[in-house]
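Cast an eye over my tokenised protein here and flag anything odd:

===
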Amino acid sequence: MNELKKYHEIPIGGTVITKDVVQPKTGGWRMGEKPMVNLDKCVNCLICWLDCPDTAVLAEGTDFFGFEYDYCKGCALCAEVCPTDAIVMVPDDQEVPEYGRMLNGGPHEN
């Protein structure tokens, strides 16, 4: 029987989620707030995308796209790590534009 590898024997890597992986929609567990982004302030650093524990931050290539509220639990980590304060948390019952995107103070559609 083969022994399991120790942590230092495993190659360095990350988690890759392919499109055919089923992910549970956890947005119903949200903690009372959800993120919204001001695209005028966003610099596309994608730190929010890297730090989101729920893969709720959407990116298109190297550009921030928005939030997938079906998966967002409202932990506010994205807002905490945003270096330009482009992401703010708003009450969960507040109406927001699709994907939580604002530009020039108003909804931004793609």
